[in-house]
DNA sequence: GTCTATATTCGGATAGAC
DNA sequence: GTCTATCCGAATATAGAC
């Protein structure tokens, strides 16, 4: 892995763990085993490096989720699989967590990929919900966009509850709770 | 309002807006119109002040929600009212947002009130769900604790989606989505 | 109780040698 | 490309006068 790649990977890890305001150039350099000069040779500064790191995380996440939601199975099965996707619950969502960082929200270049990723996710999930309705698996009374937002919010909020409790339990409960509601709304 | 009170109130606002790592003693002093000496006279440092601020926010939130959930109306009506409670959506939850702050999570004295508040909220809401099941308003197939976690997670996650999109829309969608699911799960 | 002065370390970067 | 030196202001206090 090149020095540039190591800088990006270290930044990804630190942004996930400490956020943008909580991450210093010095910490990034140390984690990457690179000197100051090296970092400022490859990137104009902390912001450009963070953008590269966020982009990489966003692309990875998007590709993984899309593969899962586009895979085989009924709509409800794919939503269930997505909700049960393996996650490092106590670390939170590496993209969603950035919405709490004041500098990220105030910097268009950093905010953009976060916005795009979560908007894409809601839209993609709404498609799957619509497929489920069309197939008669889900109630035609459901609004695909609203239901999709609820599912994504359950995950994002599940992370918050799990981190507060220092336990994955509330996350798992929230997921099972929303799945039970989805299943119980099926046409009978 | 005393200087001490102004320090606490300013800290509350800054913690909400910028988090703990993003808030400096200097910024607090400036917002409170107090000098350094003043702050260090009333509090041992940033941590003790933050604890006082978080405690105050947590108590306020808890009292307000409890009043609403203990009020008149059926269980489903009270849950609906709680979900429709007026909120500054784009600012996020002043308690839930702290779970994303690495220093808060690493400091037991700061983490404790956050944990307590969200745990209390899940338990309180689970009671209301149980009342709804007992009254025949909600499906007896629902698990009160899981359903309560889903409802709280929908709110916390709704804030995340709204902040990412810089619009309250995804929050409102998530709330309406979960309410539709709750209603559609009612025994028929 | 509040103020000003001082101290130490970190944050975020630039300059220029190798 | 990478390194070391250097810069300036901010973060987080402590000390002691008023």
From TrEMBL, chains A, B:
Residues in the DNA-binding region annotation: 24-43
Domain of life: Bacteria
Keywords linked to the UniProt accession: DNA-binding, Transcription, Transcription regulation
All copies of domain HTH tetR-type, residue ranges: 1-61
GO MF entry, a single one: DNA binding
Name by which UniProt lists this protein: TetR/AcrR family transcriptional regulator
Species for this entry: Streptacidiphilus fuscans
Lineage of the species this protein comes from: Bacteria, Bacillati, Actinomycetota, Actinomycetes, Kitasatosporales
